[in-house]
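Budget justification note: compute hours in this period were largely spent on complex prediction jobs such as the one shown. Inputs:
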Amino acid sequence: MTDEQTIPAAGAGGRAAANAGLQASLRVLAVSVGPLVAALVLGGLLLLAMGFNPFSYYGYVIQRALFSPSGFEATLTRMGPLLLIAASLIVAFRAGLWNLGGDGQYLLAAVFVAATVPLTLGVLPVWANLLLGLLIGAAVGALWSLLPALLKAWQGINEIITTLMMSFLGVSLANVLVKLAFLDPGTTTPQTRTLPVEARLPRLFDSSVSSGLLIGLAAVIVVHLVMTRTAFGMRLRLVGANPRAAVHAGLSVPALTIAVFAISAALAGLSGAVDILGTHGNVRADWNPAYSLTVVPLVFLARLNGFGSIAYVFLFSALTIGGESAARRIGVPSFFSLVIVAILLIMLGLAEYLDKRHQERARR
Amino acid sequence: MALFTQGFIITLLLGAIAAGIPLLLAGLGEQLSEKAGVLNIGLEGMMLFGAYTGFLVAWASGSTALGFAAGAGGGAVVAALMALLCVRLGLNQIVTGIALTLAAQGLTALLHFVQFSRTYPRLDGVEALPIWPLSEIPFIGPVLFNNNAVFYLAVALVAVFAWIYRMTHLGAALQAAGDKPAALDAAGVDVIRTRSMAVLVTGALAGLGGAYMSIAVAGVFVPFMSHGNGFIAIVLAMLARGRPLWVLGGALLFGGSLSLTTALQVAGVDVPTDVIQMLPFAMVMLVLLVAGRKAALPQALGESFVRGAR
Amino acid sequence: MQAPSQAPAASTTAPPGAPVVALRGVTKRFPGVVANDNVTIEIHAGEVHVLLGENGAGKSTLVGMLSGLQQPDEGGIEVDGRPTLVGSPRQALSIGIGTVFQHSMLVPSLSVIDNFALGGAWWKTPDRKGIAAAIRETAGRLGLRVDPHALVSSLSLGERQQVEILRALMRGSRCLILDEATAMLTPHEAVALGELMRRLVAQGIAVIFITHKLNEAVAYGDRISVLRLGRNVGEIAPETLRASSDAENTETIISLMFGTAAGEGAVGGARAARSHGDVVLEVAGLCSDAGRVPVRDIDLTVRSGEILGVAGIDGNGQKELAEVLAGQMPRSSGSIRLMGQELGDATVGQRRAGGLRYVTDDRLGEGTVGTFPVATNFLLKDIGAAPYWRRGIERPEEIRRQAETHVRDFDIRTPGTQTPVGKLSGGNIQKVLLAREMTGSAEVVIFAKPTYGLDVNNIRATRKRIVEAADAGKAVVLISTDLDELLELSDRIAVIDRGRIRGTVVNGEGARDAIGRLMSAGDEQ
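Corresponding output:
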C-alpha cells in the first residue's frame, strides 16, 4: 500500500516488467491471504479479551481438525453438505438471483428424507433407498422455492425477501413436522426415526468419511463447469448480468428464473438429504445448523468460483469441527467460527477496496 | 364465544404491543435506510447486538434507561460498520448485511456464554409510566396508557418520521438520496453523509428495538433472540412504502400474531409454539401474493453512489 | 457569497470586456487518456457559446470541471477574472454556474417545488408557497408554463429540462451550461429550446450549449468553440459567424472538427434508383398493445435490396413496431410474413434463424452486456449454436476465431476480443452490434436509430454499412428520427404517428414536403 512502489524503474524496461509481475503476484497474495491473517489476528484478540489463550485455541483447533484422524475425517464429512450449499448459491448468484432461503430448503428436505427413508428401507434395497432419499431431498428443496420463483418470475417481487420468509417458514414447519407428524414412536425424545448406520451413504475406503463428500465435490465442480463452459450456463449468466439483454436475445427470463430457483433449491435440499443419509440418520426437534447463510460469505470470498469455494468450505469446515471440539475441551463456544467468517469477509472487502484505490493511484 | 374473554383480549393486545414495539422501531429505521437507498439486510444483527448491549448495561448499572441507551448505541455501532463498508466503500449491501448479522450472532452468543451462561441473571420489569387519567379507561387504558417510556417514544416516532418525510428538507433529501442520488449531490447535499446518517439512525432504532426485547419483554438475553424479527421489519418497511403509519399497523399486526400463543394459552387453547411462529412469515408471503408488485422500492436501492459515475 | 457585479448585458451585439467564466489552460487526465489538453475558453454574458465536438472530444469532461464534479489536473477556472476553485456542485452553484445535464437531475418521486427546495437546511420546512410563486414568476418572464405542484415523473423530457433551466436561474446562475440538451428531445422541443436560449441571452445570461450537431450549433450559437481530441482547435467569433452564411459556417466547422476537407458524404441526394428483388418482408394489419404506445394496423412490404425508411417523431410506436417484428413483444393480431412464411408467434431465435435481424438503439441497455467480453457479445443471440457450442459445450477456439474476424471486418477498436464491451466507445459498441446482426444468414435487417448518439465518423461508417447491406440484396427497415438520414438512404419512407402508418412516400423530389404533410396530417385520421 505504499506509494514508492509506483515510481517506475527508469531505463531498465525488462527489469521493470519483471518487477511489475512480481508486484502483481505479491499483490494477489496480499489481497487473498492478508484478510485471512487479519481475521485470525482479530479473532485472537477477541479470544484474549475473553480470557483465553489464542495460541492454544488455534493450535488445538488445527490439531483437532487437521491432524487427528477422527477430526480430519469429520472435517471432510462436514464438507459434503456445505459444498452442496455452495453449489446451490453459486448457481443462483451467478444468475443474479438472491436465493437466501437455503436454510429452509435444507431443513425441510432433511426432515422429509429422515421421515421417509427409514420406512422404505425394508421395501427397497439399500442403494435404491439412498437414491430415493436424495431424490426426495432435491424435490422437497425445489418445491419450497416454487413460490418465490413464481413471484419473482411473474410479479417481479424481490426474491431476497420472499426466500428469507420462506426460509423462516420452512424451519418452523420442519420443527412442527418433527414434533407432530414424523415422531419416532420408539423414543421419548422428539425426533424422527433413525436410519440404521449400515443403511446410510457408504463410507470412503477404511475411513469414517462419508461419500457425501464426493457428491458435494462433484456438485460444485459440475456447477462451476456448467456455469462457465456451457450454453445453459451462459444463458443463466446473461439473465443475471442484464435481464433486458436476455429478452432482446430471445431468452425466456421467467422460465430461466424458475429453472435457476429449482436447481439452486434442489441442491440445497440435496445438501439436507446428504447430511441425513450420510451423517445424522435422523432429525431432532429444534435442530437447525443454518448452513446456508453461513456459506453465503464463503462463496463470495471465493468470488463465486467453484474451486475457490472448495478451498473456503474446507477452511470453514475445519474451523467448525475444530471449534466444536474446542468448545468441549477449552470452553470457547463454537459460535466463534461464525465470528471468524464474518470478520474474514469484512477484511476481504476492505482489502479489495484498498487494492482498488492503490491501483487507481498507481495508474495516474 | 368463550374465547374472547377480557383476559384473552388484554393478553393479546399487551402481547401485540410487546412483540410489536421492536418491530415498529426496527421497521421505522429500515424505512429510513431504504428511503435513502440502502437496503439494510444487517438489521437483524443490529437488533441482536442492541439486545445484548442493552441487557448488559441494564444489568450492570441497574438502570433500564441506561440499558435502552446502550441498546441504541450497540445497534449504532453495527450500523457504523455497515455505513463504512457499504455507503463509503461501496461493498455489496446484501453480503455485508449478512456478514454483520453473522458476526453479531456469533459475537453475542460468545459473550453471553462467557458472561452469563453460569448465572443467567434476570432483570425486573421496566417501570410503567401511567398517563392519568387516560390509563383509567377500561380495556384501552391499561394497554395503551400504562406503558414504559420506550413504548411512548416508539409511537411518537411514527408521527415524527411522518412529519420529517412530508414537511422538511430532510425528508426530500432522503427521498432524493434513494431515488436520484446524483440530483441530491448536484443540489449540494452530501449523499454519502445523508445515507450514512440514515444507516446510523436505523442502527440506533433497531438496537433500541432489540434492547426492548431483552430488557422490557424477556428480562434476559438469550443468544439468537431476535429470531428473524429484523428480517420481518425489513419486509414491513418494504410493504409500507415510505409511510410510517403503515409500519405501525404492520408491526401491531405481526406482533399480534406472534403473541397469539400466549393469549390462546390464557384462553385455554393449546397450540404448539412452532405453528404460531410460522404465522408472521406466512402472513408476509400472503401479503406479498396479494399486494404483488406494489411493494415498490426506491430506484437506486442497493447501489452505491460514486460522484460522476454513470 | 458574491455580489452580482455583472451589469446585465442588454444586447448580444458587443461582448462586454471581461468573460463571466473562463477556462485557462485546463488539462484533465484519466487512466490512459488525456480528456482535456490545455484548453482555454472564455464565456461571455449575453452569448450562446457552443462547445462543439465529436463524442470523446472532451466536452463532458469540460462540463464536469465547470460544474464541480471533477477538478482539473492543470490550469484553472476563472470567475469574473479571479482564479476560483470549483470543488463541488454546490460551490459551482454558489458562484453562479448552473448546469443542466443530459440526463435529468431531478428526483422523479418529488414535486417540482420539492426539487427546487432540495438542499435547504434539513430541519426546516420548505417554503412551498414562496417557491411556487417564484417558479411562476420566473417561468412567466421566460414565457414558459410550469406547474410547480406537478410530480416530476409526470413531466415529459422537454418539460423536465425547462424545469431544470428554471431551477438553475432561480439559484442565481449567471452562466448556464446545457449539456447535450437536445439529444433527448423531439425536433419540436429542440426548436423550443433554441428559442428559449435566445431569450435567456437576451436577459444577459451566459449560455454554454454543448452539442455534436452542426446545424444546431450554427442555428443557435453566437460563438462556437470546436473541440477535437481534448484540444480547443478553433473558435468562431460572433462577428465571423454573423458575416457568413450557414453553409460557409458549417464548412468551417467541419474542417475544424476533422481537419480534412469538408462536405464529403454529409448531405448527399437520395439514393440512385435501383431495381429491387422479391418481397422479403410483408406485414399486414399488425396490431400490438403490449408496449407503451399501442401499434395499430401496420401494413408494410420490403423487397430484397430495398431500404424502407420509417420516419416519425420519437415515441410514436417505432420501438414497439421493431420489437413486435423482432419477436420481443407479442402481437395481438395481424400477420408478418418472412419470405412468404407466416411468422405467427415465432420466438426471437426462430425469427433470427429465418434471417430476421434487429439492431436495437439501446446498445448498452439491451443490445450488449457491458461486463461480458466482446467475443461473447457477438454470440448473445446464438447461445448454444454450432459451431461455437457442441452439444451445449463451449468451443473457445471457434468463438475466438469468429470474434477476430468480426473485429477485423468491422474495424472494431478494442484492446482484445476478451475486453468487456462496456469499456469500448459508443461507436465501437455499435460496430459490435452491426457485426452480430449483419453477418450470417441475414435477410431482413431492422435498424432502430442506428446513428443515434454517434460521432460523425461513426455515423458515416454506419450509413455505409446500411447501404452495403441493401446492395448485397438484404431488405432493410430503417427506423430513424433524423429526416436527412432517411432521405439520404431510403428508397421509400413510411411515416409513423401514434402507432399508425400514415402513408408511404417514394424517396425523390418533393419527398421531404410529402413526409412533412403526413406527419402533421395525422389529426384528421
